[in-house]
Amino acid sequence: MKLYEYSAKNIFKQEGIPIPRSDLAKSAEDAKAIATNIDKPVALKSQILLGGRGKAGGIKFANTPEEAYTASNKLIGSFIRGEPVQSLLVEEKLKIEKEFYLSIAVDRSNKKSLIMASSEGGIEIEELARTQPEKIIKKHLNPLNEFLPFNAREIARKMGVNSALIPPMGAVIWKLFNIFKKYDANLAEINPLVLTEEGLIAADAKLEIDDDALFRHKHLMELEEYEEKEFAYVKLEGDVAVIGNGAGLTLTGMDMIKLYGGNPATFLDIGGGASSKNIEKAINLVLEYPKVKVIFLNVLGGITRADDVASGVINVLNNANRKVPMVIRLTGTNEEEGQRLLSEAGISFETSMEAAAKKAVELCN
Questions:
Q1: For 274-291, what is the mean pLDDT?
Q2: Which domains does the chain show, CATH number per domain?
């Protein structure tokens, strides 16, 4: 579960990490009132769950409440990288002296938590790793050893900050680790962590909670970003939505799309034993994603019955408001009945995953 910036910052504040003065606006009137209350230039930050919003125009600045009203009126209701903007974090614009990067994540390949810190913040860590990898401090944490404040200060020292900044930097690192551990996070990130006249402040915040641990954090399930998930669903940057029954089959379908020159727009695993209603929900879910130009439905029926898949597809195509070409690969349990239903409805299908993937890419192009 990804938290919006404002939710993550509320947690950071509760756990002792300084954040800018801010409040959430759901209308231009709200933004104007918050800017008036802050009584300083403000940043208007679109609350979406995708990265890169700044480059995509999702962050604006305003010197007066009137400017805040005008800018927020344009942002709220717009789409940033395909995501609708329904609210803004109206935040005091900081006078920044220096930017840093700090994150803690689960490193699955090493089966440990990984702290990454850098004296170069405000840019994507992937870009920094590619161009200046020596500026990233990495420390894997042994789960059998307690991570203590002096360990955090040692990381701060290795970052190259001046001696006066080592204690407060170490304190932020230690508090971020405590948040990461307390909330069962997959990722806790501050980029940038900024130095101002008032000290270190988290100018941005990311927090991703392990879905399987949410039963320990019932209050997070009350947040507006919480959605009870029926499917394993990930949005990507391509234009071919890939739906499959089983994670392995869905990933293989994505590989096939790439093999034939296309780019997946989604990973959506409907799981085993999906009903016709599940099929409808899955297809409607990817239809809501504006980047999707073609849907590739890749089903090898075991527990999942091909006739249920066919019924779900037919219902969606008869009732969907948005019409998108769909390529269907359908084999397995009850395949004759499923294929008959599709044929009678005038819907073409393939039995070969390779042929279906190739056709999907051709349609997209």
A1: 89
A2: 21-92 (3.30.1490.20), 98-222 (3.30.470.20), 232-364 (3.40.50.261)
